[in-house]
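Intended use. Records like the one below are meant for learning the mapping from a protein sequence to its folded structure. Do not use them to infer anything beyond what is encoded.
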Amino acid sequence: MNFSKIKQSIISNSIAISFGIIIMMMLIQAILSIWRFNEVKVEFEQVVDVYNVRMELVQKMRVISRERAPILFTMLNTEDAFELDSLLMDFQQLGSHFLVMRKQLLETNLSDKEAQLLEVHREYARSVVPEQREVIRLIQEGRTIDARKLLIDKVSPNQVEALKHLDEIIAYESESSKHAMDNARALFENTQRDLGLTTIFGSLISIIIGIIVSIRFTYYVRTLKKNKDDLEDIVIERTRELQDSNKKLEYIANYDSLTKLPNRALFMVLLEQAIKQVNRTQLSVGLFFIDLDGFKAVNDTYGHDCGDELLRQVASRLKTVLRDEDALFRLGGDEFTLIISNFTDDKVVNIIAEKIISTLSEPFDILGQQCRIGSSIGIALYPKHGETIDELIKNSDTAMYDVKKTGKNNYKVCSVGNNPKSINHD
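Structure written out for the chain above:
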Protein backbone atom coordinates (compact mmCIF):
# COMPACT_ATOMS: atom_id res chain seq x y z
CA MET A 1 0.00 0.00 0.00
CA ASN A 2 1.46 3.32 -1.04
CA PHE A 3 0.97 5.58 1.99
CA SER A 4 2.51 8.56 0.18
CA LYS A 5 -0.19 8.49 -2.46
CA ILE A 6 -2.86 8.02 0.19
CA LYS A 7 -1.50 11.00 2.15
CA GLN A 8 -1.28 13.11 -0.97
CA SER A 9 -4.83 12.14 -1.87
CA ILE A 10 -6.04 13.06 1.62
CA ILE A 11 -4.27 16.45 1.43
CA SER A 12 -5.62 17.11 -2.04
CA ASN A 13 -9.13 16.19 -0.95
CA SER A 14 -8.80 18.33 2.16
CA ILE A 15 -7.69 21.33 0.09
CA ALA A 16 -10.55 20.71 -2.36
CA ILE A 17 -13.01 20.43 0.51
CA SER A 18 -11.59 23.61 2.06
CA PHE A 19 -11.93 25.52 -1.20
CA GLY A 20 -15.41 24.05 -1.60
CA ILE A 21 -16.39 25.30 1.84
CA ILE A 22 -14.91 28.73 1.08
CA ILE A 23 -16.79 28.93 -2.20
CA MET A 24 -19.98 27.81 -0.47
CA MET A 25 -19.48 30.42 2.24
CA MET A 26 -18.88 33.06 -0.41
CA LEU A 27 -22.15 32.07 -2.05
CA ILE A 28 -23.90 32.12 1.33
CA GLN A 29 -22.37 35.52 2.04
CA ALA A 30 -23.51 36.90 -1.30
CA ILE A 31 -27.04 35.48 -1.00
CA LEU A 32 -27.34 36.54 2.63
CA SER A 33 -26.08 40.04 1.94
CA ILE A 34 -28.42 40.55 -1.02
CA TRP A 35 -31.40 39.19 0.91
CA ARG A 36 -30.69 41.11 4.11
CA PHE A 37 -29.82 44.37 2.40
CA ASN A 38 -32.99 44.04 0.34
CA GLU A 39 -34.95 43.65 3.59
CA VAL A 40 -33.24 46.74 5.00
CA LYS A 41 -34.02 48.64 1.79
CA VAL A 42 -37.68 47.60 1.97
CA GLU A 43 -37.94 48.64 5.62
CA PHE A 44 -36.37 52.03 5.01
CA GLU A 45 -38.53 52.61 1.92
CA GLN A 46 -41.61 51.75 3.98
CA VAL A 47 -40.62 54.34 6.58
CA VAL A 48 -39.75 57.05 4.04
CA ASP A 49 -42.30 56.38 1.30
CA VAL A 50 -45.28 55.22 3.35
CA TYR A 51 -45.19 56.38 6.97
CA ASN A 52 -43.89 59.84 6.13
CA VAL A 53 -46.57 60.24 3.45
CA ARG A 54 -49.27 59.11 5.86
CA MET A 55 -47.96 61.40 8.58
CA GLU A 56 -47.97 64.36 6.18
CA LEU A 57 -51.54 63.62 5.03
CA VAL A 58 -52.86 63.32 8.60
CA GLN A 59 -51.03 66.52 9.60
CA LYS A 60 -52.67 68.33 6.67
CA MET A 61 -56.08 66.96 7.71
CA ARG A 62 -55.49 68.27 11.23
CA VAL A 63 -54.48 71.72 9.96
CA ILE A 64 -57.59 71.88 7.78
CA SER A 65 -59.81 70.88 10.71
CA ARG A 66 -58.28 73.60 12.87
CA GLU A 67 -58.65 76.24 10.15
CA ARG A 68 -62.38 75.60 9.71
CA ALA A 69 -63.28 76.50 13.32
CA PRO A 70 -62.06 80.15 13.20
CA ILE A 71 -63.97 80.66 9.94
CA LEU A 72 -67.27 79.94 11.71
CA PHE A 73 -66.43 82.46 14.45
CA THR A 74 -65.47 85.03 11.80
CA MET A 75 -68.78 84.45 10.00
CA LEU A 76 -70.58 85.25 13.27
CA ASN A 77 -68.89 88.64 13.50
CA THR A 78 -69.25 89.86 9.90
CA GLU A 79 -72.11 91.87 8.48
CA ASP A 80 -70.67 92.13 4.96
CA ALA A 81 -72.60 89.82 2.60
CA PHE A 82 -69.65 89.51 0.24
CA GLU A 83 -67.26 88.63 3.07
CA LEU A 84 -69.81 86.13 4.44
CA ASP A 85 -70.08 84.47 1.01
CA SER A 86 -66.29 84.38 0.71
CA LEU A 87 -65.92 82.84 4.19
CA LEU A 88 -68.56 80.23 3.38
CA MET A 89 -66.73 79.33 0.20
CA ASP A 90 -63.42 79.05 2.12
CA PHE A 91 -65.13 76.83 4.71
CA GLN A 92 -66.52 74.53 2.02
CA GLN A 93 -63.25 74.43 0.08
CA LEU A 94 -61.38 73.38 3.22
CA GLY A 95 -63.93 70.60 3.69
CA SER A 96 -63.31 69.44 0.11
CA HIS A 97 -59.53 69.52 0.67
CA PHE A 98 -60.02 67.46 3.84
CA LEU A 99 -61.91 64.77 1.90
CA VAL A 100 -59.18 64.70 -0.77
CA MET A 101 -56.50 64.21 1.91
CA ARG A 102 -58.56 61.44 3.52
CA LYS A 103 -59.01 59.68 0.16
CA GLN A 104 -55.27 59.84 -0.50
CA LEU A 105 -54.62 58.44 2.97
CA LEU A 106 -56.95 55.48 2.30
CA GLU A 107 -55.05 54.77 -0.92
CA THR A 108 -51.81 54.11 1.01
CA ASN A 109 -52.93 50.58 2.02
CA LEU A 110 -53.57 51.25 5.67
CA SER A 111 -53.25 48.52 8.25
CA ASP A 112 -56.35 47.30 10.08
CA LYS A 113 -55.46 49.42 13.11
CA GLU A 114 -54.87 52.55 10.99
CA ALA A 115 -58.11 52.01 9.07
CA GLN A 116 -59.97 51.50 12.37
CA LEU A 117 -58.60 54.77 13.83
CA LEU A 118 -59.48 56.67 10.65
CA GLU A 119 -62.99 55.18 10.66
CA VAL A 120 -63.49 56.24 14.29
CA HIS A 121 -62.59 59.79 13.34
CA ARG A 122 -64.88 59.68 10.30
CA GLU A 123 -67.84 58.45 12.34
CA TYR A 124 -67.25 61.18 14.92
CA ALA A 125 -66.85 63.84 12.23
CA ARG A 126 -70.17 62.78 10.72
CA SER A 127 -71.91 63.87 13.90
CA VAL A 128 -70.16 67.26 13.80
CA VAL A 129 -70.99 68.15 10.18
CA PRO A 130 -74.80 68.59 10.72
CA GLU A 131 -74.09 70.89 13.67
CA GLN A 132 -71.69 72.98 11.54
CA ARG A 133 -74.33 73.23 8.83
CA GLU A 134 -76.89 74.30 11.42
CA VAL A 135 -74.54 77.07 12.61
CA ILE A 136 -74.14 78.30 9.01
CA ARG A 137 -77.91 78.20 8.48
CA LEU A 138 -78.53 80.23 11.63
CA ILE A 139 -75.91 82.79 10.58
CA GLN A 140 -77.48 83.13 7.14
CA GLU A 141 -80.89 83.66 8.78
CA GLY A 142 -79.42 86.37 10.98
CA ARG A 143 -79.83 84.35 14.21
CA THR A 144 -76.31 85.01 15.39
CA ILE A 145 -77.08 84.53 19.08
CA ASP A 146 -78.41 81.01 18.49
CA ALA A 147 -75.53 80.31 16.12
CA ARG A 148 -72.95 81.50 18.69
CA LYS A 149 -74.50 79.37 21.45
CA LEU A 150 -74.53 76.26 19.24
CA LEU A 151 -70.96 76.95 18.11
CA ILE A 152 -69.62 77.41 21.64
CA ASP A 153 -71.67 74.71 23.38
CA LYS A 154 -71.46 71.89 20.84
CA VAL A 155 -69.53 72.53 17.64
CA SER A 156 -66.26 73.78 19.14
CA PRO A 157 -66.01 71.02 21.80
CA ASN A 158 -66.85 68.40 19.17
CA GLN A 159 -64.20 69.81 16.83
CA VAL A 160 -61.66 69.60 19.65
CA GLU A 161 -62.65 65.97 20.18
CA ALA A 162 -62.31 65.30 16.43
CA LEU A 163 -58.81 66.74 16.55
CA LYS A 164 -57.99 64.35 19.38
CA HIS A 165 -58.92 61.43 17.12
CA LEU A 166 -56.58 62.80 14.46
CA ASP A 167 -53.88 63.15 17.11
CA GLU A 168 -54.37 59.46 17.92
CA ILE A 169 -53.72 58.60 14.27
CA ILE A 170 -50.63 60.84 14.24
CA ALA A 171 -49.35 59.19 17.42
CA TYR A 172 -49.95 55.73 15.97
CA GLU A 173 -48.17 56.65 12.71
CA SER A 174 -45.25 58.05 14.68
CA GLU A 175 -44.99 54.88 16.75
CA SER A 176 -45.31 52.69 13.63
CA SER A 177 -42.59 54.69 11.90
CA LYS A 178 -40.30 54.31 14.92
CA HIS A 179 -41.02 50.57 15.03
CA ALA A 180 -40.20 50.19 11.33
CA MET A 181 -36.96 52.12 11.81
CA ASP A 182 -36.04 49.88 14.74
CA ASN A 183 -36.72 46.80 12.62
CA ALA A 184 -34.59 48.16 9.80
CA ARG A 185 -31.79 48.98 12.22
CA ALA A 186 -31.99 45.49 13.74
CA LEU A 187 -31.91 43.90 10.30
CA PHE A 188 -28.87 45.94 9.40
CA GLU A 189 -27.10 45.02 12.65
CA ASN A 190 -27.93 41.33 12.18
CA THR A 191 -26.63 41.51 8.63
CA GLN A 192 -23.37 42.99 9.84
CA ARG A 193 -23.10 40.32 12.53
CA ASP A 194 -23.84 37.38 10.20
CA LEU A 195 -21.46 38.60 7.55
CA GLY A 196 -18.75 39.10 10.16
CA LEU A 197 -19.16 35.54 11.50
CA THR A 198 -19.01 33.92 8.07
CA THR A 199 -15.98 36.03 7.19
CA ILE A 200 -14.19 35.02 10.39
CA PHE A 201 -15.08 31.37 9.91
CA GLY A 202 -13.80 31.42 6.35
CA SER A 203 -10.62 33.09 7.48
CA LEU A 204 -9.97 30.26 9.97
CA ILE A 205 -10.01 27.77 7.14
CA SER A 206 -7.79 29.81 4.92
CA ILE A 207 -6.36 33.13 6.07
CA ILE A 208 -5.30 34.18 2.64
CA ILE A 209 -8.54 33.16 0.95
CA GLY A 210 -10.51 34.66 3.80
CA ILE A 211 -8.72 38.02 3.41
CA ILE A 212 -9.34 37.97 -0.33
CA VAL A 213 -13.01 37.16 0.24
CA SER A 214 -13.30 39.86 2.88
CA ILE A 215 -11.69 42.49 0.65
CA ARG A 216 -13.85 41.53 -2.31
CA PHE A 217 -16.99 41.52 -0.22
CA THR A 218 -16.19 44.89 1.34
CA TYR A 219 -15.65 46.27 -2.13
CA TYR A 220 -18.94 44.75 -3.25
CA VAL A 221 -20.84 46.26 -0.31
CA ARG A 222 -19.34 49.69 -0.86
CA THR A 223 -20.06 49.49 -4.57
CA LEU A 224 -23.62 48.41 -3.87
CA LYS A 225 -24.14 51.30 -1.45
CA LYS A 226 -22.55 53.78 -3.84
CA ASN A 227 -24.74 52.54 -6.70
CA LYS A 228 -27.79 52.80 -4.47
CA ASP A 229 -26.89 56.36 -3.47
CA ASP A 230 -26.18 57.31 -7.08
CA LEU A 231 -29.47 55.77 -8.18
CA GLU A 232 -31.39 57.67 -5.49
CA ASP A 233 -29.73 60.93 -6.57
CA ILE A 234 -30.65 60.23 -10.20
CA VAL A 235 -34.25 59.41 -9.25
CA ILE A 236 -34.56 62.61 -7.19
CA GLU A 237 -33.11 64.71 -10.00
CA ARG A 238 -35.30 63.06 -12.66
CA THR A 239 -38.36 63.49 -10.47
CA ARG A 240 -37.58 67.17 -9.98
CA GLU A 241 -37.05 67.66 -13.71
CA LEU A 242 -40.31 65.84 -14.48
CA GLN A 243 -42.23 67.98 -11.98
CA ASP A 244 -40.77 71.17 -13.47
CA SER A 245 -41.64 70.01 -16.99
CA ASN A 246 -45.17 69.11 -15.94
CA LYS A 247 -45.66 72.52 -14.34
CA LYS A 248 -44.41 74.26 -17.48
CA LEU A 249 -46.64 72.14 -19.73
CA GLU A 250 -49.64 72.72 -17.47
CA TYR A 251 -49.03 76.47 -17.53
CA ILE A 252 -48.64 76.51 -21.33
CA ALA A 253 -51.85 74.49 -21.74
CA ASN A 254 -53.95 76.67 -19.43
CA TYR A 255 -52.58 80.22 -19.66
CA ASP A 256 -52.28 82.86 -22.37
CA SER A 257 -48.62 83.63 -23.03
CA LEU A 258 -49.27 87.30 -23.85
CA THR A 259 -51.47 88.50 -20.96
CA LYS A 260 -50.66 85.67 -18.48
CA LEU A 261 -54.42 85.21 -18.03
CA PRO A 262 -56.12 81.79 -18.00
CA ASN A 263 -57.07 80.70 -21.54
CA ARG A 264 -60.12 79.05 -23.10
CA ALA A 265 -59.27 75.55 -21.82
CA LEU A 266 -59.10 76.67 -18.19
CA PHE A 267 -62.14 78.91 -18.73
CA MET A 268 -64.34 75.91 -19.57
CA VAL A 269 -63.10 73.99 -16.53
CA LEU A 270 -63.57 76.85 -14.06
CA LEU A 271 -66.99 77.79 -15.47
CA GLU A 272 -68.15 74.21 -14.92
CA GLN A 273 -66.77 74.28 -11.38
CA ALA A 274 -68.48 77.62 -10.66
CA ILE A 275 -71.83 76.22 -11.84
CA LYS A 276 -71.43 73.12 -9.66
CA GLN A 277 -70.60 75.34 -6.70
CA VAL A 278 -73.73 77.41 -7.34
CA ASN A 279 -75.89 74.29 -7.44
CA ARG A 280 -74.75 73.54 -3.90
CA THR A 281 -74.99 77.07 -2.46
CA GLN A 282 -78.07 78.40 -4.32
CA LEU A 283 -76.15 81.56 -5.32
CA SER A 284 -75.61 82.92 -8.85
CA VAL A 285 -72.89 82.95 -11.49
CA GLY A 286 -72.45 85.78 -13.99
CA LEU A 287 -70.70 85.24 -17.33
CA PHE A 288 -69.33 88.33 -19.12
CA PHE A 289 -68.24 88.26 -22.79
CA ILE A 290 -66.03 91.31 -23.37
CA ASP A 291 -64.98 92.41 -26.86
CA LEU A 292 -62.76 95.46 -27.36
CA ASP A 293 -64.07 98.27 -29.61
CA GLY A 294 -61.43 99.83 -31.85
CA PHE A 295 -58.68 97.29 -31.17
CA LYS A 296 -58.26 96.39 -34.84
CA ALA A 297 -57.68 100.05 -35.75
CA VAL A 298 -54.90 100.34 -33.16
CA ASN A 299 -53.35 97.09 -34.34
CA ASP A 300 -53.47 98.11 -38.02
CA THR A 301 -52.30 101.69 -37.41
CA TYR A 302 -49.45 101.18 -34.96
CA GLY A 303 -48.51 97.54 -35.55
CA HIS A 304 -48.76 94.24 -33.71
CA ASP A 305 -46.29 95.24 -30.98
CA CYS A 306 -48.61 98.07 -29.96
CA GLY A 307 -51.59 95.73 -30.22
CA ASP A 308 -49.93 93.19 -27.93
CA GLU A 309 -48.98 95.88 -25.40
CA LEU A 310 -52.56 97.19 -25.49
CA LEU A 311 -53.91 93.71 -24.68
CA ARG A 312 -51.51 93.43 -21.74
CA GLN A 313 -52.60 96.81 -20.37
CA VAL A 314 -56.29 95.90 -20.85
CA ALA A 315 -55.76 92.73 -18.82
CA SER A 316 -53.99 94.72 -16.11
CA ARG A 317 -56.81 97.30 -15.91
CA LEU A 318 -59.52 94.67 -15.79
CA LYS A 319 -57.86 93.03 -12.79
CA THR A 320 -58.08 96.28 -10.83
CA VAL A 321 -61.90 96.44 -10.97
CA LEU A 322 -62.59 92.81 -10.12
CA ARG A 323 -63.23 91.13 -6.78
CA ASP A 324 -60.85 88.53 -5.41
CA GLU A 325 -63.27 85.70 -6.18
CA ASP A 326 -63.83 86.79 -9.81
CA ALA A 327 -61.95 85.04 -12.63
CA LEU A 328 -60.74 86.79 -15.82
CA PHE A 329 -59.79 84.94 -19.04
CA ARG A 330 -58.52 85.74 -22.53
CA LEU A 331 -60.12 83.54 -25.18
CA GLY A 332 -58.05 84.91 -28.06
CA GLY A 333 -57.66 88.06 -30.14
CA ASP A 334 -59.38 90.91 -28.30
CA GLU A 335 -61.99 88.70 -26.61
CA PHE A 336 -62.05 88.35 -22.83
CA THR A 337 -64.45 86.54 -20.50
CA LEU A 338 -65.19 87.08 -16.84
CA ILE A 339 -66.81 84.71 -14.33
CA ILE A 340 -68.52 86.41 -11.36
CA SER A 341 -69.33 83.89 -8.62
CA ASN A 342 -71.10 83.71 -5.27
CA PHE A 343 -73.52 86.65 -5.30
CA THR A 344 -77.20 86.98 -4.53
CA ASP A 345 -77.99 90.46 -5.86
CA ASP A 346 -77.97 90.73 -9.69
CA LYS A 347 -77.06 94.42 -9.41
CA VAL A 348 -73.49 93.29 -8.79
CA VAL A 349 -73.04 92.50 -12.50
CA ASN A 350 -74.28 95.95 -13.48
CA ILE A 351 -71.79 97.62 -11.14
CA ILE A 352 -68.90 95.54 -12.44
CA ALA A 353 -69.88 96.08 -16.08
CA GLU A 354 -70.00 99.86 -15.59
CA LYS A 355 -66.58 99.79 -13.91
CA ILE A 356 -65.13 97.82 -16.84
CA ILE A 357 -66.54 100.21 -19.44
CA SER A 358 -65.31 103.21 -17.44
CA THR A 359 -61.76 101.96 -16.92
CA LEU A 360 -61.32 100.78 -20.53
CA SER A 361 -62.61 104.12 -21.85
CA GLU A 362 -59.66 105.93 -20.30
CA PRO A 363 -56.79 106.59 -22.80
CA PHE A 364 -53.90 104.13 -23.03
CA ASP A 365 -50.23 105.10 -23.41
CA ILE A 366 -48.91 102.42 -25.79
CA LEU A 367 -45.21 102.65 -26.67
CA GLY A 368 -45.39 106.46 -26.77
CA GLN A 369 -48.76 106.53 -28.60
CA GLN A 370 -51.98 107.58 -26.89
CA CYS A 371 -54.87 105.30 -27.89
CA ARG A 372 -58.55 105.09 -27.01
CA ILE A 373 -60.76 102.03 -27.21
CA GLY A 374 -64.11 100.91 -25.85
CA SER A 375 -65.70 97.63 -24.80
CA SER A 376 -68.88 95.78 -25.72
CA ILE A 377 -70.07 93.45 -22.98
CA GLY A 378 -72.70 90.71 -23.04
CA ILE A 379 -73.83 89.20 -19.74
CA ALA A 380 -75.74 86.01 -18.90
CA LEU A 381 -76.60 84.71 -15.43
CA TYR A 382 -76.79 81.11 -14.31
CA PRO A 383 -79.33 79.58 -13.93
CA LYS A 384 -81.61 82.43 -15.03
CA HIS A 385 -80.33 82.67 -18.61
CA GLY A 386 -79.21 79.12 -19.29
CA GLU A 387 -79.08 75.79 -17.52
CA THR A 388 -76.03 74.49 -19.40
CA ILE A 389 -72.58 75.87 -20.13
CA ASP A 390 -73.33 76.04 -23.86
CA GLU A 391 -76.55 78.00 -23.32
CA LEU A 392 -74.82 80.41 -20.95
CA ILE A 393 -71.96 81.05 -23.40
CA LYS A 394 -74.33 81.42 -26.36
CA ASN A 395 -76.61 83.92 -24.60
CA SER A 396 -73.78 86.10 -23.28
CA ASP A 397 -72.12 86.07 -26.71
CA THR A 398 -75.43 87.03 -28.39
CA ALA A 399 -75.91 89.91 -25.94
CA MET A 400 -72.40 91.15 -26.70
CA TYR A 401 -73.01 91.17 -30.45
CA ASP A 402 -76.27 93.08 -29.91
CA VAL A 403 -74.22 95.77 -28.15
CA LYS A 404 -71.93 95.87 -31.19
CA LYS A 405 -74.94 96.42 -33.45
CA THR A 406 -76.46 99.22 -31.34
CA GLY A 407 -73.52 101.57 -30.86
CA LYS A 408 -70.82 99.65 -28.91
CA ASN A 409 -69.12 100.69 -25.63
CA ASN A 410 -72.09 99.43 -23.62
CA TYR A 411 -73.37 96.25 -22.01
CA LYS A 412 -76.48 94.07 -22.11
CA VAL A 413 -77.85 91.51 -19.70
CA CYS A 414 -79.97 88.66 -21.02
CA SER A 415 -83.59 88.62 -19.90
CA VAL A 416 -85.54 85.50 -18.85
CA GLY A 417 -86.26 83.36 -21.90
CA ASN A 418 -82.75 83.93 -23.28
CA ASN A 419 -83.77 87.17 -25.09
CA PRO A 420 -81.12 89.90 -24.63
CA LYS A 421 -82.34 92.92 -22.71
CA SER A 422 -80.53 96.20 -23.14
CA ILE A 423 -79.33 98.16 -20.14
CA ASN A 424 -78.11 101.56 -21.28
CA HIS A 425 -74.86 102.94 -19.89
CA ASP A 426 -74.01 106.65 -20.26
